[in-house]
TrEMBL record:
<dbReference type="InterPro" id="IPR029016">
    <property type="entry name" value="GAF-like_dom_sf"/>
</dbReference>
<dbReference type="InterPro" id="IPR003018">
    <property type="entry name" value="GAF"/>
</dbReference>
<dbReference type="InterPro" id="IPR001633">
    <property type="entry name" value="EAL_dom"/>
</dbReference>
<dbReference type="InterPro" id="IPR043128">
    <property type="entry name" value="Rev_trsase/Diguanyl_cyclase"/>
</dbReference>
<dbReference type="InterPro" id="IPR035919">
    <property type="entry name" value="EAL_sf"/>
</dbReference>
<dbReference type="Pfam" id="PF01590">
    <property type="entry name" value="GAF"/>
</dbReference>
<dbReference type="Pfam" id="PF00563">
    <property type="entry name" value="EAL"/>
</dbReference>
<dbReference type="InterPro" id="IPR050706">
    <property type="entry name" value="Cyclic-di-GMP_PDE-like"/>
</dbReference>
<protein>
    <submittedName>
        <fullName>Sensor domain-containing phosphodiesterase</fullName>
    </submittedName>
</protein>
<dbReference type="GO" id="GO:0071111">
    <property type="term" value="F:cyclic-guanylate-specific phosphodiesterase activity"/>
</dbReference>
């Protein structure tokens, strides 16, 4: 027997999930009959595994398995024909077997053959005296072996049929997709999922009508869908979801057109309970290149998208799924980035200048991430992803320590420029955030007035009570606080007044919009006025031109940040930039 068919045979055996399962009466009954018909003390259903004969059912045998080597049952499985050994001790081959060692003298076995023709093992009887087997006995043994096979297939099918609709279930759908992969790799096919209703709608039905009635409705829906299918098997893949694969001659576009028309027609003509709530997800896939489980997963996503569509039909967009996977990957990989202190992450610094003099008064530390495979990832992409996870604590911590280490280094070189650090909303939820910042300052031997923390307007609002508490403690420790992206949130002046804020950074969208005209300029002018009323220093973000800088200065805005002055710089370049631009802090002569 060749290796390929042996591995296919083993595969078939394993797929039946029979090996190492407990004994069951339905098999034992047949084994007992075999033993009675032959009038012999020993009988077994013996399955031929890779290197053992494993007994699914046995009468008069103590062992659960014996080695496959020289076991007559293995010969039955391999030849797929009955085998009779009238006297084991007199048989040149089997005289040396384990079976002979147990005192067995007679063996008769009939093959267990699957519908696909794989020999799984044997139904066998064993005697302790040599004897012959009659024609009648052997034909009974063959019949009983066929009954064993029927039982095996029945049990297997049981886990593959939905008890309510009697349709093949999710397992069968996945198995059949896997078969498709083997049979026609590379073929483009279209999978379809019909989702009968949203979970809350289903819950509503169960609450009002009871679950028995829901089963009835699902059965009706299954019939309705099946009636409309040609040449496709319908699978019942979840309580209220059905799936099928369109025949090979349909492409995705034709499939969507067909399904949209069928659904519209059903909505117009059918009285099924689910006709208005059903939606259809469509997923084109290539057999062999998309794993069956992924096809099903994307089907669910497409069906969900379909809920937002009037037609009720949505085709899976790989672009949306790619974006989803990228988010997931960034989230996963960021943890690793945090653990490599000098590897993937770095900060760049963007100068902030006094509009009156053009000199540098501060700088903002901005995080940069170079992913080892995906390259530079913009903070606008990864920060919001990390902010929604617990890793945001590590992110802020990393930037804080990196910034403080940089400040300490500049301090030694005689550069005294405060650094501003961005803090996320959920950092303010951490009960000991303020303490950890103060602790970090101490560890790096940096004075509190050398850092400023930027929180967005919405972050300060989000957990109002707790956020205010943390901000108060930070302020009390001598740390400057700034409201970032001012104007994009909805905080009231009354609320802002309660916050210990020193700086307001007007969001760059308002600054850039000033080019558009008088109204936009008036808006910025009033924001500057608000800042003054709150007795804050006002900073304009995103200044890209000399004109904007002059206008803002005339409005009374104190400071500015933007490409017009400088883009964010690598920390090494910043010291050089400062030397030529000058600072208003401790290096008054630097520009001379
Ligand atoms: P942000 O805190 O408002 O930072 C200002 C952003 O505007 C920076 O983008 C900066 O490069 C950009 N920018 C500055 N001047 C101009 C200009 O004249 N024109 C234009 N078009 N853009 C200008 P960046 O570095 O891409 O950061 C984007 C956002 O990511 C930041 O907005 C901040 O919300 C977040 N972020 C960056 N680093 C960190 C960090 O360390 N922690 C946290 N929590 N968030 C960070
Ligand atoms: Mg900022
Ligand atoms: Mg900002």
């Amino acid at each position: 027997m060749g290796d390929i068919s042996e591995s296919a045979r083993l595969d078939a055996l394993r797929q039946l999930d029979l090996l190492d399962t407990p004994a069951s009466e339905s098999f034992d009954r047949i084994t007992r009959m075999a033993s009675q018909i032959f009038g012999l003390p020993i009988a077994a259903v013996s399955l031929t595994d890779k290197d053992r004969q494993w007994f699914k059912s046995r009468v008069g045998v103590a062992h659960q398995s014996i080695p496959r080597d020289r076991a007559p049952c293995a010969e039955v499985a391999e030849r797929r024909e009955p085998v009779v050994v009238e006297d084991i001790r007199a048989d040149a081959f089997y005289a040396q077997s384990v079976l002979a060692g147990t005192g067995a003298r007679f063996y008769a076995g009939a093959p267990l053959i699957t519908r696909e023709g794989h020999g799984l093992g044997a139904l066998c009887v064993i005697g302790v005296e040599p004897r012959t087997a009659t024609e009648l006995e052997m034909s009974a043994l063959r019949d009983l072996a066929a009954m064993v096979m029927a039982q095996i297939e029945l049990q297997h099918a049981f886990g593959r049929v939905d008890p309510i609709s009697k349709l093949a279930n999710r397992n069968q759908f996945l198995d059949d997709l896997a078969d498709l992969e083997r049979d026609t790799p590379g073929e483009q096919r279209v999978a379809v999922l019909v989702d009968l209703a949203r979970t809350d709608q289903i819950d509503g039905i169960v609450r009002v009508l009871g679950s028995g009635h829901l089963d009835q409705l699902v059965r009706e829906a299954a019939r309705t869908v099946r009636e409309r299918l040609e040449r496709s098997t319908l699978y019942h893949v979840a309580a209220t979801q059905f799936a099928f694969v369109l025949p090979p001659d349909y492409d995705a576009e034709q499939g969507v057109a067909l399904l949209t028309a069928r659904l519209a027609e059903a909505r117009a003509t059918s009285s099924s309970r689910f006709v208005t709530t059903s939606v259809i997800g469509v997923v084109p896939f290539m057999a062999g290149s998309t794993a069956p489980a992924d096809v099903l997963r994307t089907l669910h996503g497409a069906a969900q998208d379909a809920r937002l569509q009037e037609s009720g039909v949505s085709i899976h967009s790989y672009r949306v799924d790619d974006a989803h996977q990228r988010r997931f990957r960034l989230l996963q990989d960021f943890g690793e980035a945090l653990e490599q202190p000098d590897g993937q992450l770095r900060i760049v610094v963007q100068p902030r200048v006094a509009l009156a003099t053009g000199r540098c008064v501060a700088a903002e530390a901005l995080l940069r991430w170079r992913h080892p495979e995906l390259g530079e990832i913009a903070p606008g992409e990864f920060v919001p992803i990390i902010e929604q996870s617990a890793a945001v604590r590590g992110l802020t911590e990393w930037v804080l320590h990196r910034a403080l280490a940089q400040l300490a280094e500049w301090q030694r070189e005689g550069v005294r420029i405060p650094l501003s650090i961005n803090v996320s909303a959920s950092n303010l939820e951490e009960g000991n955030f303020a303490e950890r910042v103060v602790e970090a300052l101490r560890a790096h031997d940096v004075a509190p007035e050398m850092i400023e923390l930027e929180v967005t307007e919405s972050a300060a609002m989000k957990h109002a009570g707790r956020a205010v508490e943390q901000l108060r403690r930070l302020s009390a420790a001598g740390i400057t606080l700034a409201i970032d992206d001012f104007g994009t949130g909805y905080s009231s002046l009354a609320y802002l007044q309660q916050l210990p804020v020193d700086v307001i950074k007007i969001d760059q969208s308002f600054i850039r919009a000033m080019d558009a005209g008088e109204r936009e300029q008036a808006l910025v002018r009033s924001m500057v006025a608000v800042g003054e009323a709150l007795r804050c220093r006002v900073v304009a973000e995103g200044i890209e031109s000399e004109g904007a800088a002059e206008l803002l200065h005339a409005m009374g805005c104190d400071e500015g940040q933007g490409y017009h002055f400088s883009r964010p710089l690598p920390v090494e370049a910043f010291a050089a930039w400062i030397t030529q631009a000058g600072t208003e802090l401790t290096r008054p002569h630097a520009d001379t």
